[in-house]
Amino acid sequence: MTRRTIGLSPATTKSYGPAVFLQRADFVSLLHENEPALAAYNASPVVKHIVHKIRKCGEMAEKYEQNRDFVAFVNLFADETQPLPANWQASGKNPTVFIDHTARRTTLIDPRLPPPAVERKRGRSAPPSRRQNLDKNGNLIDLASRTAEIAMLVEERLPDLAPKIRKKLRLIERLGTVALNQLANDVDLIMAISILDSDDPVISTEFEEKLNHFYTSLYRSGYGKGPQKVKFQFSRSNLLQDAFSQILAVDSQALRRAKLAISFDDEEGLDYGGPSRELFYLLSRELFHPYYGLFEYSAPNQYSVQISKYSNLVQHDLQWMELAGRILGLALIHRCLIDTFFTRTFYKMLLELPITVHDLQEVDPEFGRSLLWLHENPIDSSLGMTFLVNEEENGQVIEKELLPNGAELNVTDDNKEEFISLMIKWRTERGIQRQSQALLRGVHQIIDRDFLRVFTADELELVLSGSREIDLEDWRRNTEYRGGYFDDHVVIEWFWDRVAQMSNADRLKLLQFVTGTPSIPFEGFAVLRGSNGPKRFTIEKWGEESALPRAHTCFNRLDLPSYPTPHILRAKLHIAITEGINYAIE
């Protein structure tokens, strides 16, 4: 091989690693200024994942240097017009290998990354620098469209600053960019933006203790303990009707205490947990889907669902809602995740917690803002507001009093809080009160309300639905191997390389294929559950090269043949997760 040597830079030129570069405070600014790098970042979930792990967890970048996409991304920041740092050498092409003679190591990452900026002193007459509207992860925030979300989080986590921050958020709503520029260095607003550091709620030790106490209390009270079993047999093609006729027919006390034995028509298999988990996944996808009319999306651009105001048009709607409640209660008892995320107001309804104006802004921002304005501004009788609302009923608009003689009672500063409370109750219960009561009745038939009250709305969402974003490092770290496979085995390396290249949707399909559910417990892969408690994701060497991968959902086990090439593995795995279902127990 012909060696190509690039001239060495002066000894004063100093290099530093990609991890240090990615963890710099100004990395986000550099990313948004580098259009090719920004495009590569947005186009690759793998690159996003790696950058996030290095920035948030302080992991070393060297472990990712074999990932071509990541290396190409980082090298987009290198200034190839500059000489290499002292004692560095470049060798070869496609790829170029960089040799650090001082550290006696090689790397594919170009060491000519931008050096840390030297902070310049500002003259007395110079204006202060403007802070970009970035969250702590470096994402540009469209504050004007997220003011309601920020206000709700601030109310919970920064209650002392909430009134001041709300006023600034309303200013942003009215003035847009002008207000953002004015408030760019506002400390209160910067603190509010920092709350958006993570899309997922923070899992605290307190919550883990709370969850352990919840399940311990259920077990001591005999919930789901057996020894009796309730057996269900369902048809995949008639799942909802089978669930309606079978689950509602069982005495609620028996459902509380019995173990579940689930089977599907014409499918060989024993229920050691896999079919049960899959049942809750499949039922939740159908029962809570807006297509069936019982539930609806909370907003055109949201995928969280709530009880539909038109659910009364569904035949036997109250019985269907009771079934929905029983499904949620059983999922909690048996630690099975569902494939549905509800609105915050729905979780609060399940917990019988008061709903606030900020909760309401999630489902009806305009209505929530109007009530918030009433709360924060003086009111007099000249506004002509009374305890009366207009409501549509059977295609006609009618007037409804919020309390007896409400049409005669003016809204004033003295009674406006009662008016706001009644308006929230009317808005959240409008047209769905009977359905909500039926659903709650179904939940409480299975699990006593006192057990649920330990959770907040955010915590209940995590317990019911888990997390939808897959952490690849957590997945691999908590995977076990059998039959001759080990973490560095070449076939296993090919497997994880393929998983890294998958979209998040395909990773969820793979997870469902092996475990029976596409959701992840909030604690991560370390606590995946099998037939008799926690059972980690397992890959076992099995089968001929011509065979497809095989899954044992009861044991979270993937039987993976030792394929001769990564291309064959990729093709076989694709067929398995898109077309194959196999719950056979050998």
UniProtKB/TrEMBL annotation:
Q: What EC numbers are recorded for this enzyme?
A: 2.3.2.26
Q: Which UniProt keywords apply?
A: Repeat, Transferase, Ubl conjugation pathway
| Active-site residues, Swiss-Prot/TrEMBL | C554 (glycyl thioester intermediate)
Cellular component, GO annotation: cytoplasm
What InterPro entries does its record include? E3_ubiq-protein_ligase, HECT_dom, Hect_E3_ubiquitin_ligase, HECW1_helix, WW_dom
For the region Disordered, what residue ranges are annotated? 109-138
Q: Which residues form the signal peptide?
A: none
Write down the chemical reaction(s) this protein catalyses. Answer: S-ubiquitinyl-[E2 ubiquitin-conjugating enzyme]-L-cysteine + [acceptor protein]-L-lysine = [E2 ubiquitin-conjugating enzyme]-L-cysteine + N(6)-ubiquitinyl-[acceptor protein]-L-lysine
Would I find Repeat among this entry's keywords?
A: yes
Which GO molecular function terms does the record list? ubiquitin protein ligase activity
Tell me the ranges covered by the HECT domain, including all copies: 251-586
What is the top-level taxon of the source organism? Eukaryota
Q: Which GO terms fall under biological process for this protein?
A: negative regulation of smoothened signaling pathway; positive regulation of receptor-mediated endocytosis; protein ubiquitination; regulation of dendrite morphogenesis; ubiquitin-dependent protein catabolic process
Q: Which PANTHER family match?
A: HECT DOMAIN UBIQUITIN-PROTEIN LIGASE (PTHR11254), HECT-TYPE E3 UBIQUITIN TRANSFERASE (PTHR11254:SF320)
Q: What is this protein called?
A: HECT-type E3 ubiquitin transferase
Q: Tell me the organism.
A: Angiostrongylus costaricensis (Nematode worm)
